[in-house]
């Protein structure tokens, strides 16, 4: 234990050293920076980095949340060849929001996962109201959820499964 190496010198005055500044002197600016040294976590930390998943799936999620994966709408905007319709339902245009939480195929998969794991608090019926993947993902992993880390992992893994199924049908 570290305590064994600690010797109290009752004759010396106490010195307070602020370890976050090079000169050891406290300032508001260094205190502000210190908040980012592990004390404060961004929403992205909960949505992605703290979840249980392999790195490549976390990377996929990081792109998906920023709407940076190559769905048909994004390919179209670049003038690149694309599948147009969602390859899962073949009825609606493919956007990342459609693919990950609006497609009836996706909702059916989620409903079976919800039933399987007894996640009654997750209700897919209002998901169509969410405007973006970021908004939807954030709601699934926000503080109101009982087991945030598990749900973040589940959201990531189900979305990864959908993305792979989509790719298997496109290519
Ligand atoms: Zn679809």
UniProtKB/TrEMBL annotation:
InterPro entries: RVT-Znf. It comes from the Eukaryota. Residues 26-110 form the Reverse transcriptase zinc-binding domain. It holds the Pfam family zf-RVT. This is Reverse transcriptase zinc-binding domain-containing protein. It comes from Aegilops tauschii subsp. strangulata (Goatgrass). The lineage of its organism: Eukaryota, Viridiplantae, Streptophyta, Embryophyta, Tracheophyta.
């Amino acid at each position: 234990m570290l305590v064994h190496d600690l010797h109290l010198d009752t004759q010396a005055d106490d010195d307070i050293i602020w370890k976050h500044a090079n000169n050891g002197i406290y300032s508001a600016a260094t205190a502000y920076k210190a908040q980012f040294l592990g004390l404060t976590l961004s929403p992205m930390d909960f949505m992605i980095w703290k979840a249980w998943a392999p790195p490549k799936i976390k990377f996929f999620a990081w792109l998906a949340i920023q709407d940076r994966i190559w769905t048909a709408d994004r390919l179209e905007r670049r003038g690149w060849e694309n599948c147009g319709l969602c390859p899962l339902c073949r009825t609606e245009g493919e956007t990342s929001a459609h693919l990950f939480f609006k497609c009836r195929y996706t909702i059916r998969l989620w409903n079976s996962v919800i039933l399987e794991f007894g996640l009654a608090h997750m209700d897919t019926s209002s998901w169509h109201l969410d405007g973006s993947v970021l908004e939807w993902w954030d709601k699934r992993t926000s503080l109101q959820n009982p087991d945030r880390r598990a749900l973040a992992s589940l959201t990531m893994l189900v979305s990864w499964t959908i993305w792979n199924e989509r790719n298997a049908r496109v290519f």
